[in-house]
Amino acid sequence: MAESKDHLWKAQDDAPEPLEDLVKTGAHPLGLDVGTSKVVAARRDSKDVACSFQLNAFIPVPYSPVTERTIAQQSEIHHFRDGGEIVIFGSATDRFANMFNAETRRTMADGLINPNEKLAWPVLEQILKTLVPKPTAANEVLAFSVPAAPPGREAQLTYHEATLRKFLQSMGYRAMAINEGLAVIFSELEDHNFSGIGVSCGGGMCNATLAFLSIPSIMVSLPKAGDFIDRSVGEAVGEHATRVKVIKEEGLDLTRSPRDKLEKALHIYYEDVVETLVETLRGAISQVDSLPKTDRALPIVLSGGTAKPRGFRELFERALRSRRFPVEISEIRMSADPLTSTARGAHIAAMFEK
Ligand SMILES: Nc1ncnc2c1ncn2[C@@H]1O[C@H](COP(=O)(O)OP(=O)(O)OP(=O)(O)O)[C@@H](O)[C@H]1O
Ligand SMILES: [Mg+2]
Where residue 52 sits, what CATH number does that domain have? Predict the structure, then answer.
């Protein structure tokens, strides 16, 4: 009798704890996706996880007292004064760029703080302040995403990560970095014990991570994603990259034959990005001497804004199936919400850090 009772208790102990039960009462862990195009914050809001975001972009306009006063009266326009200019930043930027027919500027390029932009850090700091509230308790955990080191740019990644960590610590958080691909695994592959391949195709970069039981074995990144597509298509057809971006986001369908020159170029560069990504991933997995042994095939999850067009999953699958891939793949699926996967995954990672 006693034996069977013990067994019952053990079975209960082994049942996985629901994720929300990991969090101490009163704690509010935060997940932050610091992306080239967007910064997204995820945190628990009563029962659900809520995400908020800002465009990671800005545009300076000439300063005058009237302009400053007019802008200040509109609460949704984030801005600060910088000498003879007013810097508009975050999600209002696109509206101003359209109004003045000017290109927006970015704090990050190819996944990292842009070393060629003098306002990069001052603006990124302001953007983060709009999304990251004061911590509710001492040492509140905040997990922020970082890309895998691009080959030859390891030192730049160290600078990027340390700058973000120091700033978030100065706000009172216990800040930890999480690899972007691993964050996707955290948000999408809980049902596979956090084992599989997480892919994020964003604005500045594609990132992919292969993990077993949440432990990353391979992390790759390439500086080719949405921005590269916009720029390359623009150069090929003589159109501004900003205009290409709008057309692309309005409804590119990769399952349909291209109807004009611009669509044809979009298909060509999408194929280029996906082929390069799959080949980079294949090469990295092939080079590893021994991967943890598993008798199960691994799932792949696709996320990020660049993965959104119809037909992206099929394009990725074709590129994968046309090669001898070094690990067996069970399925290729889309993330539930490609634009928030990284932030939601970072939030889960923060919840685990008690
Ligand atoms: N519906 C859409 N169709 C096609 N592309 C889209 C769509 N929505 C967003 N994008 C593209 O996705 C990219 C931004 O994706 P995302 O927000 O995941 O990037 P990020 O996380 O900010 O950047 P990164 O991870 O590279 O640092 C941009 O290139 C944007 O044009
Ligand atoms: Mg991203």
Answer: 3.30.420.40
Number of domains in the chain: 1
At 349 the three-state DSSP class reads helix
Residue 93 lies in a domain: no
Q: Is 36 exposed, middle or buried (0-12, 13-18, 19+ CB in 10 A)?
A: buried
Q: 159 is written with which tokens?
A: 């600078």
> Are 244 and 234 within 8 A, CB to CB?
yes
| Burial (CB count within 10 angstroms: exposed 0-12, middle 13-18, buried 19+), residue 55 | middle
Per the domain annotation, does 169 fall within a domain?
yes
Across the chain, the runs of DSSP E, i.e. the strands, are 30-34, 38-45, 48-55, 57-62, 78-82, 85-89, 105-106, 108-109, 112-113, 140-146, 173-179, 196-201, 206-212, 215-222, 298-303, 329-334
Range from 149-158, 269-278, 309-318 carrying the lowest mean pLDDT: 149-158
**Protein residues whose CB sits closer than 6 Å to any atom of ligand 1:** 33, 35-38, 111, 200, 202-205, 225-227, 245, 248-249, 252, 304-306, 308-309, 339
The H or E element spanning position 151 is: none
Q: Residue 137, CB half-sphere, CA atoms under 13 Å: how many?
A: 13
Q: How far apart are CA 171 and CA 197, in angstroms?
A: 33
Best residue for ligand 1 mutational test, from 306, 308, 342 (most atoms within 8 Å of Cβ)? 306
Instruction: Provide the token pair at 303.
Output: 């996320």
Question: How many angstroms does the Cα of residue 170 sit away from the middle of ligand 1?
Answer: 29
The model's pTM is 0.92
Alpha carbon distance 115, 339 (integer Å): 25
**Which residues, including other chains, have CB under 8 Å from residue 54's CB and lie 6 or more apart?**
38, 39, 78, 89, 90, 91, 127, 130, 131
Predicted confidence (pLDDT) per residue in 59-85, tens digit = 999 999 999 999 999 878 999 999 999
Q: Is 194 in contact with 299 (CB distance < 8 Å)?
A: no
| Residue 5 falls inside a structural domain | no
CA-to-CA dists, residue 240 to 119, 235, 279, 295, angstroms: 23, 8, 29, 49
Is 133 strand, coil or helix?
Answer: coil
Residue 4 in any domain: the answer is no
